[in-house]
Amino acid sequence: MSGDIQTIEYQGLPALRLSTAAGASAVLSLYGGQLLSWVPARGRERLYLSERARFGDGPIRGGVPVCFPQFSTQGTLARHGFARTRMWTVTEQRTGDDFALATVRLVDDPQTRALWPHPFILELTVAMDGGRLDLELEVINSGHAPFAFTGALHTYLRVAELEECQLQGLHGFDYLDALDAGAQARRDSGDVLLFDGPLDRHYRDVERPLLLRDNGAALGIHAEGFPDVVVWNPWEDGNARIDDMAPRDFRRMLCVEAAATHRRIALEPGESWHGRQTLVCL
C-alpha cells in the first residue's frame, strides 16, 4: 500500500494533505508554501499552529513559514520577506511504499519585483515517511544579475511543556542574542539549552545535528545547506504582545529554525542553492 496526496481546502485556503500507509500525515498550504501540520506514524502533532492564526490575511502563525529573501528585519522588506504571504503552485506529487512527496513553487512577478527587483524561482519539497520529515528549499537565480539573500525555514515545533524541554547539540557554537541589541557574539558553554525566559539566539555555522527532548520523547533535528540555527520563544511577556497567539501558548511551542542569517547567500545568474531541514522521531 502506498502513500496518498489529496487536494483539500484548509481554513479556506488551497492545500495538499499528504499521508503514508503507516499513518503519517502532513498538510501543506499553497498560501506561503507553508507546512501547517506533521503527524508521524503512531505519533502526535509535532508542529505548533496557533488557534488564533490568520489564514490568507498576512503571515500564518505556526507550521513552517518560508522566510525569503530576507530573514527578520535584516533588510528593507517587511519582516521575513514576502514568500510566506504569496500563493505558490504545485509542480510535483509522488507517492510510493510508505512515502509521500510534494513540491511547490514560487516565481517572481511584477509585485515581487516592485519589492525586490530580482527574478527568482523558489521550490519547496516536502517528503515524509513513517517517522521522518524532510523539507528542502531551492533558490534559483533566474535573472541576468547576481543577488544575495537571507532566509530560513521558520519551524514552530509543538512541545508538551517548554520548561521541561532540553535542546542538545549547540555547545561550543557562537551565537548572537537578538534580545540584546549591540551585544557581541557569545559562545554557548552549556551541555544543553534550557528554557526559563525569552530567547532569540542566532547560532552561527552549526555543524552537528540537534536533539530536542520533550516529555520523554526525542526529536532529531538536522540541517544541510543552511549554515545557521535560530532558537526562538517569546515567553510570557512577548506572547502577550502577539495578537495571533493565545495567552500562555509560549509554553506549547519552540522555534528551531534552519537559517541563513549571519552571511547572505550570493547567487550568480543561473546558479542555485539548496537548504534542507530534517526532523526524525527517535
From TrEMBL:
Determine if Isomerase is one of this entry's keywords.
yes
Catalytic residues of the enzyme: H154, E257
Keyword check for Chloroplast: no
Q: Which UniProt keywords apply?
A: Isomerase
One cellular component term (GO) for this entry is: cytoplasm
UniProt record, GO biological process? carbohydrate metabolic process
Family annotation (PANTHER family): APOSPORY-ASSOCIATED PROTEIN C-RELATED, GLUCOSE-6-PHOSPHATE 1-EPIMERASE
Give the E.C. number(s).
5.1.3.15
Question: Can you name this protein?
Answer: Putative glucose-6-phosphate 1-epimerase
Q: Which reaction does it catalyse?
A: alpha-D-glucose 6-phosphate = beta-D-glucose 6-phosphate
Entry similarity comment: Belongs to the glucose-6-phosphate 1-epimerase family.
Molecular function terms in GO for this entry? carbohydrate binding; glucose-6-phosphate 1-epimerase activity
